[in-house]
Write a structure and sequence with these properties.
The chain is an all-alpha fold. Helices cover about 70% and strands about 0% of the residues.
Length: about 160
């Protein structure tokens, strides 16, 4: 049984803020994130009638958002070689944070930027969006084990990159 098209507005309203935050973390730019969120919700709206009742709507939306973000990143890489996705100047300058702490945050942002897209997506969904491994697996189109592996490998690679620098 398919969802009713009238309920899509409620679904979009409920999940839009968290999808936008996720896309901001994935893309590192508020304008790109807003564009990707609109694109993802438009794609979801078109396919919503085919979503079966009882499906994990949140994971389904994250899958669409992730694919949209990955496509945007591919386009960006083709257009601008070696561009950093995370605007390092947008890292908040907390008056209480030392220069060293701000530099550490910038180093983390650079390291996250260098992660493979699937690992970065899995890490963002797990650590910042609070998704479970089953939802991450559904969003990335793999198994729970692969979702766990992507998160683990992302953290492992971040540790390795940050200890070297």
């Amino acid at each position: 049984m398919a969802h009713s098209p009238e309920s899509f507005d409620q679904v979009a309203e409920r999940y839009r803020p968290e999808l936008l935050a996720y896309l901001m973390r994935m893309l590192g730019d508020a304008h790109d994130a807003e564009d990707a969120c609109q694109d993802a919700l438009l794609r979801a709206h078109r396919a919503f009638g085919r979503l079966l009742a009882g499906s994990n709507t949140r994971a389904w939306l994250y899958k669409i958002a992730t694919n949209t973000a990955l496509n945007a990143l591919k386009r960006r890489k083709r257009q601008e070689a070696n561009q950093v996705d995370v605007d390092l100047e947008r890292i908040p300058d907390d008056a209480n944070a030392s220069l060293e702490q701000r530099e550490q945050l910038r180093a983390v942002a650079r390291a996250v930027e260098d992660l493979p897209p699937k690992q970065r997506a899995a890490l963002m969904m797990r650590r910042f969006q609070g998704l479970g491994y089953a939802e991450i697996a559904a969003a990335l189109g793999g198994s729970e084990a692969s979702a766990r592996a992507n998160v683990y490998q992302a953290i492992r690679q971040l540790r390795r990159m940050l200890l070297v620098t």
